[in-house]
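Work Package 3 (structural annotation) set out to generate three-dimensional models for the target panel prioritized at the project kickoff. During this period the team completed the workflow that converts sequence records into discrete structure tokens, so that structures can be stored uniformly alongside our sequence database. As a representative example, we reproduce one entry of 266 residues exactly as it appears in the project archive.
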Amino acid sequence: MTKKQHSKIKQFLLTGAWLGLVLGLLVVMGFVNHNRKDAKCTGLSINIDNSHGLFFIDGDDVRSYIFEVAGDMIGQPIKNINISDLENKVSAMNAVEKAEVFTDLRGNVTIEIVQRKPIARVFLANGKSGYIDEWGKWMNLSTKFTARVIAINGFLPEWKGEINTVRSPEIENLEFWNQVYFLTQTIRSDDFLNAQFEQIYVESNRDIVLIPRVGRHSILLGNTEYLDRKFEKLKLFYKDGIAKVDWNKYKQIDLRYKDQVVCTKR
């Protein structure tokens, strides 16, 4: 046998081996797909991300909700379960930011849930209370868990829709709520400010006042224009001014004026 003939035989065998492997995979995939179509739901697993210390919902809440909107899935053929529809239904729950649904060959349905993250608790003048979430959406309260976030109260205008300007350009009082949302996000993104303030109060003229955790004074912010500059002034004042005297000496610290911090004594 010549070297050329030997090479052709070797190439023929390799090609045959690859064809056999591909055919084998196709057979296995066909078998898997056949079994998947015939598989029935044998179990429902719900995994909720609590890594941010949020416990608005638990597995029982989700199971009860699914039973209400989709019926009992146990025993149903997997092929009859609309995964996309189930994800949308679970994502519509008040405390849910995102839901992903998976199935396996054994008939298990797994739901992975990420909870919404509130950034502030809002107390409206009409008595309604809820949260602003990190995307600027209204979030109803939960009887199961209360988030420890900054409180917003005072002479608050009516809330309709979402705060986010891109999603809700028609919202009433949009400019005001955008100020509140921007202020809240700014405070929570700064370790010092986040630890310092526990309340945002809105006066009747819509001036914004910050209430600190330490001391009996308040911070008159006015609006959120030049917000970074105002907070820099405040930090310098805390460091070089008020830190050297009694925290309770001042009634109010006014940040509304450029390059000035105006203090009112008790």
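The first strand starts at residue 43 and ends at 49.
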